[in-house]
Amino acid sequence: MSFIQANGYPIYCNELAYAALNEYLASNKYSSIFIIVDTHSNEFCLPNFLSNLATETTIEIVEFDSGESSKNIETCVEIWKVLTELGADRKSLIINVGGGVVTDLGGFVASTFKRGIDFINVPTTLLAMVDASVGGKNGVDLGHLKNQIGVINVPKIVLIDTSYLETLPQNEMRSGLAEMLKHGLIYDKKYWEKFLDLNLIDFADFDDLILKSIEIKNNIVLKDPTENGIRKALNFGHTLGHAIEGYFLESETKTTLLHGEAIAAGMILEAHVSMAKNLISSDEYFQIKSGIKNIFDDIIFEENDLSPILDLLIHDKKNEYGSIQFVLLDGIGNIKINQTVENELIENAFKDYKS
How far apart are CA 226 and CA 6, in angstroms? Predict the structure, then answer.
């Protein structure tokens, strides 16, 4: 792994990462550095990061509670207050060290504090490396509505250090795999097929799979940075997946899902809709369903869950002119964007998911 040029910023990987960071800091005279972490990345990742950091600039650590439930404007307000109290100015730098919640929220905090200050992202989860590292999306949830408040604003640098993956529990690694599977389904059939039997993957080469996933997302974003066209492909599995994730987050009787767990279910459901619209074959659908279910546990949906999940679709940020917009597969490795889907097809997809 080495270097990828994203839209307006470089992504440095593994052996190049910290040398590039320290060279950047030496060339840019920041008044202070604020490292934003959550409780998990503070404990398990920050010591390694600080040991590789070489700068004379004053450093402050800002921590918030781990988890999607912290990804809200209230957390941002608390961080803005801390930055103000500690004297952050327009020449301060924020470095976000953590998973997708940290980089999404930290990027939003930086992009809005004093009308915007520089930030660097250091994703420490597989999900954040292959998804949040590319594209410049920053933001927070509005209640149980995912990513409703935010901006597109790119970091100065992204650093990928795959040694941080050793700090992750198995379910967090699986969560990241969901986005890698998505990249294959929407862009590269051969890449998708590499994950059909995890026993055949040589995890000594897993860094190359991560790099490939980052490259796929980057290739899409470079063509459409502001998501007016082909970048919408990256939303496959997310229309229903985000609704499921938000519903389980808000419900007092459900166990909160990891992002990748919800997206995995969303991809199966939206693949079923693709089949119902004759965009993929039944054999392709079965391969997708069985391939994903071999990695992810089934989510238990009760009869009374479907209606509130469908209600959440109304608030999906991808909707246009009051119409719910889906990304559907047009054969494995290809997509159709801006597709409308009848509720009956969604209901049938849920029925098949449970079978």
Answer: 14
